[in-house]
Amino acid sequence: MKINPIGLIHTPFTTKDACPMQPLYSSSAIGQVEIFKEYENGLKDIETFSNIYLLYLFDRAGEIEMVRKTFLDDEPHGIYASRHPCRPNSIGMSIVRLISRENNILIVEGVDMLDKTPLIDIKPYIPKFDLIESATEGWTAGKNWRPKPAGRE
């Protein structure tokens, strides 16, 4: 299987230390999603949505660890029970607010990825499909945000 990037995500974050953890903690950060010209037609009607999913490659993630500590907890958790970047296939996902579209450029708010991150897909956030009222928070329930502990990716 081969996945080719469809664009690049441009953000103000050039280092892992400066990059926020999850869009919730970077709500004011503005970024540009550059779609390569050959994929621009696929953006038709994207501006009718307020929010979009960005699927991207964690192209600068560290070594894969199947069980590891996360920024929310000092207890180790399985990689599939977290959103940690050091994972098999290294695919990231963020929901951002779509501010505007200018041809092949999307202006978005709430970026939490490094500058020049390869974009592999965009999907609209559709509340009637995506909002699950009965969803639970798993082990993250009751965990408060905290700065990323030193030395953790």
Strand content: 25-35%
Query: What is the C-alpha radius of gyration, as a whole number of Å?
Result: 16 Å
Tell me the count of domains: 1
Instruction: Please give the CATH architecture.
Output: Beta Barrel
- The percent range for helix content is under 10%
Low-confidence stretches: none
Averaged pLDDT: 89
Would you write up a description of this structure?
- This protein is 3% helix and 34% strand.
- A hairpin with a 2-residue loop joins strand 4 and strand 5.
- The strands form two sheets. The chain has a six-stranded antiparallel beta barrel with strand order 1-2-7-6-3-8.
- By secondary structure, it is an all-beta fold.
- The protein starts with 6 loop residues before the first strand and ends in a 23-residue tail after the last helix.
- It has one domain (7-126): YaeB-like (Elongation Factor Tu (Ef-tu), domain 3).
Nutshell version of this structure?
Helices cover 3% and strands 34% of the residues. By secondary structure, the protein is an all-beta fold.
Key structural traits:
153 residues, mainly beta, Elongation Factor Tu (Ef-tu), domain 3, 6-stranded antiparallel barrel, two-stranded antiparallel sheet
Give a topology summary:
Layout: E1 7-10, E2 30-35, E3 51-57, E4 67-70, E5 73-78, E6 91-102, E7 105-109, E8 117-124, H1 127-130
Antiparallel strand pairs: 1-2, 1-8, 2-7, 3-6, 3-8, 4-5, 6-7
